[in-house]
Amino acid sequence: MTSEKRGTTHEDQGFVLHTTPWRETSLVVEVLTPHNGRISLVAKGVRRPRAALRGVLQPFQPLHLVWYGQEGLRILKSAEWQGGQPLLQGRALFCGFYLNELLFRMVVPEDNQELLFESYGRALFRLALEPTQEPILRTFEYELLQSLGVAPVLDRESLTNLPVVAEVLYGLDRDGAVVRLGPGQENAVQCHGKTLLDMAKGNYGDPRSAQECKRVMRWLLQVHLGGQELHTRRILQEIPTL
User: Fold this and answer.
1) Which of 80, 100, 157, 240 has the fewest CB atoms within 10 Å, counting from its CB?
2) Prediction pTM value
């Protein structure tokens, strides 16, 4: 960090999550960084046709960011592509926007997010190269909940601490507690023990587990989103991977 008359200059890696027009020629850019968490930067004049940063502030590309100001209004000074991230196309592109909306809505501003930043970078890289998106989405969703400190323990019953049994039916409550269901019992979201064990291992190859896992993750995310609807789900609901 160096000192300028405009204030202290900061730098970090970052990914663009969301942009909003600001005044006539500028943008407010929401970025995820490893050491400064999610922050808002004002990119002045970037909407002018010949602005140097006009084509740089794109989502899904790793950037090196420099800004000044610490609280409130942070002004973007420079942004440079770091390279190495293949472009997202087709369904993978839609999935990338889904991840961005999750981060934009769920990550508290200015919390250190080194592990989540790495997880997001891995997810983008895999989305660009792998043909099947669902395992990538489920992995990232659970790692996001872990980073926020709200991920349930999946391989043990919450009340008894007994190991989860593969063919037993379990329910999850709003706090993510895993509870064994008896005959005739129902829960807002329920799944077989094998699904929970597969989720804990990051294994989404079993068709039943994959289907139940999607339902469980939607429930958990909805709880922590406070009931807010994800626009990417609503707009792109016909895309099976979401």
Assistant:
1) 240
2) 0.90
pLDDT 10s digits, 151-190: 999 999 999 999 999 999 999 988 889 999 988 777 779 9
Distance CA 187, CA 190 (A): 6
Q: Which residues pair with 169 in a beta bridge?
A: 192
pLDDT at 46: 93
- Token look-up 């027009």 returns 21
CA triple 35-41-43, angle to 5 deg: 135
Describe the strand order of the beta sheet including 169-172 as a list of residue ranges. 178-180, 169-172, 189-192
Sheet strands (E) in the chain = 2-4, 7-22, 26-33, 37-43, 63-68, 75-81, 169-172, 178-180, 189-192
* Structural domains of the chain, with CATH: 2-81 (2.40.50.140), 91-235 (1.20.1440.120)
Using alpha carbons, list the distances in angstroms from residue 210 to 96, 114, 181, 224, 241. Answer: 20, 28, 20, 21, 11
Give the tens place of pLDDT for each residue, 85-102: 999 999 899 999 999 999
Cα distance between residue 222 and residue 216, in whole Å: 10
Closest CA relative to residue 170, chosen from 204, 197, 206? 197
pLDDT of residue 114 exceeding 80, the answer is yes
Q: Is 71 left (phi over 0), alpha (psi -120 to 50) or beta?
A: beta
Distance from the first to the final alpha carbon of the chain:
41
